[in-house]
Design a protein that fits this description.
Elements: H1 2-23, E1 61-65, E2 72-78, E3 81-84, E4 91-95
Antiparallel strand pairs: 1-2, 1-4, 2-3, 3-4
């Protein structure tokens, strides 16, 4: 019973210490001066674990069909699949250029 009480006290003390340290110092600018806007600065959360995916260019591009034939203008669907601007079924193609 004494072991559980000691563990509970440690958990409560650690939680209280964590709350106390995260609540102070947020309104103080890093340079030690006064804040000009009066609004508290957002806390620095460190590096993002899952960065947002890069913005992909979903506009039409010139592609070379893998089945052969002339290059066509098509809209990317993901991977090597494209939908031709002239209509028709999706095709597997390789983009020409960026």
């Amino acid at each position: 019973m004494g072991h559980r009480r000691a563990m509970l006290c440690l958990v409560v003390a650690a939680a209280a210490a964590g709350c106390a340290t995260t609540g102070t110092g947020l309104n103080t600018p890093p340079n030690g001066g006064s804040s000009s806007s009066g609004a508290p600065a957002p806390p620095d959360c460190g590096p993002t674990v899952f960065p947002p995916p890069p913005q992909q260019d979903v506009g039409p591009r010139l592609v070379l069909p893998m089945t052969g034939g002339p290059p066509v203008m098509a809209i990317p669907m993901g991977g090597d699949a494209f939908v031709p601007l002239s209509g028709g079924p999706p095709l597997m193609a390789t983009p020409i250029g960026p």
